[in-house]
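Exam revision sheet. Question 4 asks you to relate a sequence to its structure. Input first:
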Amino acid sequence: MAEKEVILTLEGLKKLEEELELSKTVKRREVAGRIKQAIDFGDISENSEYDDAKNDQAFIEGRIITLEKMLRNARVIDEVEGTDIVALGAKVRLKDMDFGDEEEYFIVGSAEADPGTNKISNESPVGKAVLGQPKGAIVEVNVPAGILHYQILNIK
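Answer key, structure tokens:
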């Protein structure tokens, strides 16, 4: 089975590389120290500190494997400069046609999506709806609550 391509901006790639480095160095050492300290307490059969440290170790090692896989399958996209069509890496200003609200979104790959900072995935309902659309287009977005209508005001 082919591994899924991970689409990232240059900023997203750097963040994943930094997280991997931190996990492999600092976090691994910290949890190893906690395990050693818990073992020094004696009987580990009923030692909650030991169990917690081992669980943290398993989580960190799993995250390292995930990050390495993501980086191995990464494709870095360029941030788009002055385009007429919405593409990955574009910042898009949308107007909600039903309520009049305006929002600006940065279209990124799913690994980098963070709705709290207006970074939405190309695989999200809004991301899918606007990709490939020109400035001025009105798109329909199917969401669980119904259909939303957005007009693409600007692409940068």
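Marking note for examiners. The first helix runs from residue 10 to 40.
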